[in-house]
Structures are given as C-alpha cells and as structure tokens.
Design goal:
The chain has 385 residues and is of the alpha/beta class. It has 2 domains: 5-156, VC0802-like; 178-219 and 251-383, Vaccinia Virus protein VP39 (Rossmann fold, 3-Layer(aba) Sandwich), CATH 3.40.50. The protein is built from 10 helices and 15 strands. Helix 9 (317-331) links the parallel strand 12 (301-305) and strand 13 (335-341). Helix 2 (44-53) crosses helix 7 (236-247), helix 3 packs across helix 4 and helix 5 packs across helix 6 (205-214). It starts with a strand and ends with a helix.
Amino acid sequence: MEENFKMIAKCFFGFEEILEKELRTLGAQDVEIGVRMVSFKGDKGFMYKANLSLRTALKVLKPIYSFRANNEQALYKGILGINWSKYLNANQTFVIDSTVHSTYFNHSEFISQKCKDAIVDQFRERTGQRPSIDKQYPDLRINIHIDKDQVSVSLDTSGASLHQRGYRTATNIAPINEVLAAGILLLSGWDGQSDFLDPMCGSGTFLAEAAMIACNIPANINRKEFAFEKWKDWDNDLFDTIVDSLMKKTREFHYTIKGFDKAPSAVSKAKDNIRNANLEDYIKIYEENFFDTEKETEGKLHIVFNPPYDERLDIHMEKFYASIGDTLKKNYPGTNAWFITANLEALKFVGLKPSRKIKLFNGSLEARLVKYEMYEGSKRTKFQV
C-alpha cells in the first residue's frame, strides 16, 4: 500500500468551500480549508485522481520540506539540506516558482535564484554535473512559499494551471477561465437535473464545464500532460487504472444544454471547442441574440452566463443590463438565472432584485456572481395555498 502524504490544492478566492466539498466527495482525508487553498491527504493514486477530477483547483502541490529562514544564508542552507537526488537527476531540468509574504525577503525572483543556486551546487558537489533550468517544459517544477520566516518547499504535481483543460483552442475577447466557470456553476447549484442555457456563450466554456458536471466527466480528462508524469516514481499503469475507474463513474444526461451568441465567429469557436472536448452529443449552439429569444422548454431552466462589461466591449452599459433584466422577466419564466460581472454599477440597471450575491474575482477584477429567480406567474401566487 502507498503511504498517504499531505497535499495542497490552490484555488480562487471564494471557492474554498466548494473545493473542500469536491475533495471530500473524491475521498480525500484530513481535509482543511485555508485561504485560497485546501489541504488534504492521500496516496499517489489519489494525487493522480485529484489532478484529473478537481474542477475548482488551480494546482495541486506536494509539500516536501519546511524550515525557518530570515536571511539569504539561512534560505540557501535550508534548500541545500534537502536531498534533491530523490526527485531529480543531474541531466534533467527544473524551474522554481516563488511566492513571498515576508519582511525578510521582498523579491520572488531573488528567492528563486538563491534556491536554484543551492540545488545546482548540491549536484555539482555530489556528481560533478548540474541540472539545467527550463522555464517552459521542466522535468520538475518546484514551489517555494515564504510567509514571514517560514519557508515551505513543495513539488508542483500539476504543471501548467489546471484551468488549461485541453479542449479550448479557440477563444474570443476575454474568455472566462475554465476553473472560474466550473466554480460558478457549482456555486449556482448546477447538478445536471434540468435544462441549461448560456445565452451569451462566447467560446463555450460554461457549456463545456456544465456538460462535464452533468455527466460526471473528469474535468481534466482532455489535458495533454501533468507534471507528475515526468517524476521518478511515475506509474503509468496506476494512472491508467485511475482514468478507467473515473470514466466508469460517468452518468447519463437527460436534458438539454444550449448556448446562444449573436456573433458568428463566437459560435464557430464554441463549436470547435465543444468538439475538442468530445461533448457534441450533449450541447447545441445557435447564432441568436439573447434579447430576441424566449424560453423554449417546459419545466425548470438553469441559466449561467458571463455578460460583457466595460473592460471588454464598447457598449451602452445601462441599456444593455436593463435589457438583460427585461428579457429574463418577460421571456424566461420558471428560470434561475446567474451571471458574473465586474461592472458593479451596471447591476443597478437590471431592474430585478437578486436573491443572492457572491463576491468573486475575475482575474484581478472584483466581481459579483448574482442570482435572479424568475417565477412562473407572479411570486405572490406561487406561495398562495
């Protein structure tokens, strides 16, 4: 049996609780919420499973060592004290990513350089050779995190951020990050038990993530590579077993997933991305202006979308957001509608009272995820006995 070890899943602000829930559902042990991260324990197979499955994690790190340092000599000595030959050969490549929150150290590139020197010097001393730096395709990606005088050293199990799912090759202006899209869908309560619509679908990210949630398809099944595939203890057979096990847990979907966009180029790109994700059986995309549409299906409809705001397009914001409210109110009864916007002023013009508001960040922009409930008939009659 493989031994369990600690791991850290990094996430966006506001996603800590849904990431915790994902990890518990997957079978993680000793799960604990932090700030923009959740720690947990599992074995090597679970590390593979977490990278394949987690929808709201940006990276999965494996801590290997921690120590205290309040100057560059102590930092160098601490890194030198790790036996790097366990993880790396002299003829391989590596890169260091550093994050610093400290009065003792104030420059992440300097930290990376100092740590690199310690690793290289250890190999030179022991073998006469040294591993090289490769920022693009390293064999080992090392993460250094310094908080005050506490230095944490981790191996990056994921490599490139886990939002790079592998299906999106075509994008429009400011496409929404895949992890952000998946988190928004989970926050909205999307579970695949109704029809779904993204009325401003852009390159189709919400559509793809919604279908994968509905069908329980692993989020990163289309991804080309994970960092752990270059590790010394890489187990290809175990990885294949994990993939097979996850794919056996996919489920049927009995509703519709639709996307609208008024731009022909967006529709074309979205269709390409959905094809790349092997989700064409579940998703239909149409060239439509949302403001000219109405609800086409009976029963509950779940709407999630990412409307444009000032940073992206030159449109009349007041009129645009007023039209969103009017269209939802008049044409989409029996609907829960969610959207994210960083234009907090424009929200005032929707003309509907949101039943929920959640603070999130879209990149560096502070945003709100808002929910509007459209009832069949009036709200008052809904609650009359």
